[in-house]
Amino acid sequence: MLARAQAGLERAWPPLAVLVVLVIAWQAAVTTTDVSPRLFAGPTAVWQAFVEELRGPLLGALGESMTALAYGLGLGIGVGLVFGFAIGVSPRLNSIVSPYLWAVFATPDIAIAPLAILWFGLGNGAKVLMAFISVVIPVSLNCKEGVEAVDRDLMEVAYSFGGRRRDLYRKVVAPLIVPAMATGIRNGLSRGFVSVLVVEMLTGTGGLGTEVIFALSAFDSAEMLAYVLFLVGLALVLISGSRAVESRFSRWRDEVAV
Amino acid sequence: MSAPLAHKARRLIPARHDPTIPKRPTIGTKPRISRRQVALQTLVSLVILAALWEGFTVLGDVSPLVLPRFSAVIEQFPLMQQEGILVENLTISLGVYGIGMLISIFIGIPLGLAIGGIHKLDRAFSPYLWAVYTTPGVIIMPLILLWVGINDTARVSLVVVKALPAIAVVVMEGVKTVEGDLLETARSYCASRLNLFRHIVFPSTMPYIGTGLRMGVTRGLVGLFIGELFTSTDGIGYILSLSQSRFNSARTFAILLVFIAFSVILVGLSRLLERRLSAWRGTAPIRRRAPRERNEL
Hints:
heterodimer, A: about 260 residues, flat, B: about 300 residues, mainly alpha
């Protein structure tokens, strides 16, 4: 076990060293150049601002953003799975709907943000709608691809052994599309997170994005950097978490989606 | 009926109409539709969508603010052309995007090659590259606005910030999958580092460069749009926020359609490029090798 810890440390020290060097360089840059602390705050100022924000509005804002994301994610996954499955199973439906799905997938989700704000006004509705749209598209597309990638041979074997529609779907198709679903959910989660942030930044309706914009308009770079770094950390946690869940469900499929 | 006669009766019904034979599963089969048919179907469904849109807004009780009529949206195009704002702003946005993408490509590809190829750099910097790649661009946007200001440079920086990490990360992962056997063979034939690079690493990484370019194009578009939304002094975002604040829904929709068309065309082109560069790879997905199989250059 000590060997494993040693090996882990050996692997981790170069990036940690780079991090320490970066922080030192940051502090040095701030103290040597005569830049205004409002424009470019040093690490100590940012840490102080972070602690202050933690006691203040940060946790509430976090709760607001995450609630909206959770609602959008739940609805998006529910609808996306059903929709994606339907499209994957029926080639006719696929050829009708696919071009639109791909068009919306290619368009940045935030292009739809002004529309969402126009329809649902300045409130949680727009956030949930944006999260829903950002989640539903990748989930449906991935589910469709999962259904299409079901091995025909496996279906034929099950059919030859007397399996009919219900058994085929339950015992062959469903397990085979779980990895694709996991990929879609991971994709949807990161896109949904970004959409919620964008709507919050555009409309100022509470949540982490709004706090960042407040700090920006107050030209308080320490507070803004604190929020930005917190958001970066949050994004990393969410995305690596969902990646871990995805690989857990894709164990028999050794591809990595970049 | 006696047995032999019953046998004959069944053979008169073709298999696909015989109700006693269960249907074969169709999941897993790709529909055999020609490309021309797909194009035709797309065109037809677009026309149907336009007709439904128009019908719904004319017959239904929909406020024109929420969903303007399709004809009203289409009218905006010649109107904007008359006002002389459409083409001019479109060109500005395209220019910003083009410059940002050029910078991302010319810095991203070498960066990816370097970090992926040189083991020490890889150990030190690849976690940060992945971190920057996974961070959503909207989070970095306020920083850019604070430090660069609200101008064209900020928008170019946003495109670069979104596109460059994507290109670099994909190229970096691609370099790591270069076949060790090929490298060893080349080394046995006394290949210099430069030759190794030119003749083995670079061609082998081509498909990943293609994929990286495609991802860069998509993310660059997102960066462009974020910039347009938040720093709208000119370009498409300018028209968008102007029409939004004046509650000109038809124009908002028109600009969004322009943007969707723009995105679809660019992403489609980049996918074609990716497919050309991946010609020898077939449709195999990107596979990640175990860390101990990574090769040093």
